[in-house]
Prior knowledge:
By secondary structure, chain A is an all-alpha fold. Chain A has helices at residues 18-25, 37-58, 66-74, 76-107, 113-119, 128-139, 144-153, 168-193, 196-204, 209-238, 241-246, 251-261, 265-289, 312-348, 351-384, 388-397, 405-431, 443-467, 471-479, 484-495, 497-513, 516-521, 529-538, 542-572; strands at residues 108-109, 308-309.
Amino acid sequence: MLDGVNAANNGAMFVAPISSIRRWCNPFSRQWPLWDPWRLGVMLVAIVFALPVLTVLSFILYGDTQVMSHLAETVLLNYISNTVWLVLGVSYGTLSIGIVCAWLVSVCEFPGRRWFQWMLLLPMAMPAYIIAYTYTGMLDFAGPVQTSLREWSGWGYGDYWFPEIRSLWGAMAMLSLVLYPYVYLLARAAFMQQSGAALEASRILGAGPWRSFFKVALPMARPAIIAGLSLALMETLADFGTVQYFGVDTFTTGIFRTWYGLGDSAAAAQLSAMLLVMVFALVVIERYSRRRVRYHHHSLQRARQPRYQLNRRQAGLAVVACLLPLLFGFLLPFVQLLMWALETAAEMVDEAYLQLVFNSLLLASMAAMLALFLALFMAYGQRLRPVLVVQFAVRVASMGYAIPGTVIAVGVMIPLALLDQSLDSWLRVNWGISSGLLFSGTLVALMFAYIVRFLAVSIGTVEAALTKIRPSMDDAARSLGYRPWQVLRNVHMPIMRGSLLTAVLMVFVDVLKELPATLILRPFDFNTLAVRAYELASDERLADASTAAVAIVLVGIVPVLLLSRSISRSGKN
Amino acid sequence: MLFQRFITGLLLTSSLLVTSIPAAQADDEKLVHLYSARKEALIKPVLDQFTEQTGIKVKLITSKADALLKRLQTEGRNSPADVLLTTDAGRLHRAREAGVLQPIESEVLNSAVPANYRDADGYWYGLSLRARPIVYAKDRVKPEQLSTYEALAQKDMKGRVCIRSSNNIYNQSLVASMISSRGEVATEAWATDFVNNFARPPRGGDRDQIKAVAAGQCDVAVVNTYYLGVMLSGGKTSERAAGEKVAVFWPNQNDRGTHVNVSGAGVTAHARHRDNAIKLIEFLTTSQVQSWYARVNHEYPVVDGVESSELLNSWGEFKADTINLTELGRLNADALRLMDRAGWR
């Protein structure tokens, strides 16, 4: 069953493979020379892609404590409590939606199951800030829902209670609705991969379906679920658009405000460092929960279990449970966007618009491929050289995922500009020519930022897939005369095909939705769909923004569908 | 084999990208590079007119002002930008402080732009005025009940005021102007009472505040007028209906005047097309462009005697605060801290 398509089916997102730890602890393992190219290469790549984060963190050294103590006296507590509540709320939301739906579609049989199976992934294509704008347009006090409620009932302001969408609760709901697919994706794969024997045994021993779920299936899927959750939470911590629009002050908005409003990059860096500590805590929790990971992947055969046939009432409930997140996370906002788009399409869709689509596709596919190649190199390097320093380097290269795009952008700008300037000066002095901005003014800067931000996603996926390939495969291939890179190309890559696709697609969708770094780093006369949607939406021109937003969602759906197709295939194998 | 096909496709697109990266551009004489905090839709039409009339092509990047400023700083002498355009004076001042602008001498600009709307040394020039008065619900508030920004902090306004977050630069500038005229202590006392009068925690943009007034969630709001203008002239009937329920009140007419900010521009320190840059800024102060701002984006012309729009005229004449806008930039961080202490989210 090594041909399991999908990273999805393993939770090892940010965690060193157990096999490598085992090897590392092995006193008989070979030692590599200091100049070993694999080890140096991995470390070099890690340093390059950690540079932006390190640049930002280095500002801490320049600061005085005055601004920080002002923050501590006034707003810091608010940042912390909002961020913590947001993390808790999104955990609750994504876990409950993700696990319930994953369990229903992978273990039970009910009408529409096949459809739900892939449609539940659709909210992934919806950027969080877009869903936030859309719901605000619909549910705000002055929006159509409340206005018609008032007209219908004759109430005025203060006569009735209505949930306030632009609040901490609203932010939790919005982020949960678009981020639950991460949990769903990984949990579903885990449930499908579970050996049915364990579940059968528990039923035979007298446990009811609920008890079997909580005592057997859920604990077995836990590592995958936690891995999905940690992805969702990192996205939550890095979110800027939603919380900014909802007026919820979190670390991200605080960093932005401190940096630009107070003009203090040191205090902003200190806030970023605090954010990193939170991320680190998440990673540690995730790692801790996965410490027994290898117990989960040793069943070599997986009997295909018949699904539980739900009775009529149960099936009804199951349909409702799957329909709700789909409805609120995708259908409803998408239909609203489409309605707006139809109003304005005549004005907004022209040649420039097609150019936007092309630019977005270009950036997303480039970044996805680059991230994949780097991830293959890093993960395979880690497999070949399972020493602490290499593992540390791989973790360091994955740091950017939880850092807000705005911060990454500044971290990218500074080293690249420095590089440009030294190159330029050197050329001027020695050759009398000027190179200008070779890196920082071009798409190179943008690519660099994307990789820094999303490398973690592809590394995690590739790493998880590699972990499942037994080391004996490597040994066999090597003893038959393959060089290490030939092993990767001819043995591992074909085996991991599905996971590699997953890695590419996830980064693709992420880059498509990415906003802050694109906004800051893009070259002259170069716009993307996300930039266009944001510019119009932040100008409170939601209807005009909708054509671009619809395009982001539509383009994003394609890889999401490919993703779910590859997963359902793996289920059939 | 889906995967292989996918990869092939991606590689093809990637090679396209490589060819689409422009080679290092030669210093074309007929060119000017613009970093604009004004969004594309609100600047591109004017730039097209400029190109048509002068033959000078404009290369454009739009982004947030802070990001553009940061980008200028890090790019240093290699920066391709010739002009920085922002939508508030505070950022222009910050750009000057950061050393990314250069002073220019232009008779055209000096005579067109009043002295308090430009930098004394010619580092930047205001291009349009953005007034930030009070709007009120016509059916619940009588204009006689309103007088000044200061009065919005009085007890009778408890629970009736809407305003956006202190993250917003327009609020930061408003408070900076108050610090400048009344001092920090008095302003902080005002801000504390003002925050207590909020009908709801600040959220959303200026249009949202207007809608909240129209819907009855609050009675007055402090907003920039052009948001109201866009609502009234835009295509959406619900927005127009909301806009029609409110009216504009010009506060502080008996003392310093209503708070105004400018959008403005300056020539960058390392501009390679300096002459074209000056030409562009001068073009933005011609009456043709000035009245375009008034008609399309409902901002007040910075140049005296330019025909504005019917809508702007319908809101009446007003006395604008004559504070030198450089002050707004200087006091920005103080204003922000003050708002933090007052609990203005």
